[in-house]
Amino acid sequence: MLEQVINQSKHDLTILIPGLNGSGLELGQLPRFLEAAGHDVLIPDIPGYLFGSSASKFNSWVQELHQIIDAQKEIYSAVNLAGISMGATLATLVATQRTDISSLVLMSPVLKYDGWSVPFYRPILDFFYFLGLRSWEYSEREPFGVKNIDLRRRISEKFKTSKVSEVGAASISARHLHEAKGLMTSVKNSLHNLTCRLLLIQSVEDDTCSVWSANEILERCKSEVRRVIWLGNSYHIVTIDNEREIVLNEVLNFIAQTSAVEKHAMNPTTSDNRKVLKLRAGYE
User: Fold this and answer.
1) What are the φ/ψ torsions at residue 171 (nearest 5 degrees)?
2) Domain residue spans in the chain?
3) The domain 3-282: what is its CATH number?
4) Whose CA is closest to 17, among 79, 71, 74, 76?
5) Beta partners for residue 215, in sequence order
6) How many Cα neighbours within 13 Å face the side chain of 187?
7) How far is the C-alpha of 239 from the C-alpha of 262, rounded, in Å?
8) What contacts 267, CB < 8 A, 6 or more positions away?
9) What is the pLDDT of residues 144-174, one digit of tens each?
10) pTM to 2 decimal places
11) How far apart are CA 47 and CA 55, in angstroms?
12) Do β-strands 40-43 and 3-5 pair in parallel, antiparallel, or remain unpaired?
């Protein structure tokens, strides 16, 4: 089943990918915000990746997303990918394997878990997995990727009665984390193939991953058009934290400008050439 709002007369589709073992709740108001501005949105159901199903191999997540994109390319002339956390990492790998992605929006992408709230024993868990001890789960804990104290309190209360919230699942299985490690390695080895338009939004206080991941992507990708937004008052889940309005507007502006550029490329005789050239120049 796909959560989708489609009007086939529209031009572009943005596929939004939540974090590992998460749900659409992590995206906050972003789906509705894009829809209200006239952009179609799809939150795909990726078995073995999202909350509610046992973990599967990360290659199956990649293939599922490729199949979803192939199907939507029959309807839309422009398909954008956007993801948060490990969803951004997954989107990145798929974008490195295709040439038909119009733009890529990465929010708090993860290439390694090195944030300030990650416990010192986190690497030991990988060693346990290697030894065959794989029944454990990693439980989420304060600050839950959120700097806003009131929101953090509400999330803590929600986890008392629910297994999933706006910051993802209350716990992540060993298998999910193992497959995520493979995904991160594949992305690091493929960044030189990333060429599509890129928007990267990263908090400098991210508690899950440091700015190293964002810098690695920016330094190694080949995207000619790239924009980076550094946030100073949020943690990992930037879509719902203190600077969520900045995130919403930056994503919308980037998607809208991508759409304008794509429309001009399809039919340059009916486009305002100066406006499109200005859009391109503003993001280079």
Assistant:
1) -150, 155
2) 3-282
3) 3.40.50.1820
4) 79
5) none
6) 27
7) 26
8) none
9) 999 999 999 999 999 999 999 999 999 999 9
10) 0.89
11) 8
12) antiparallel
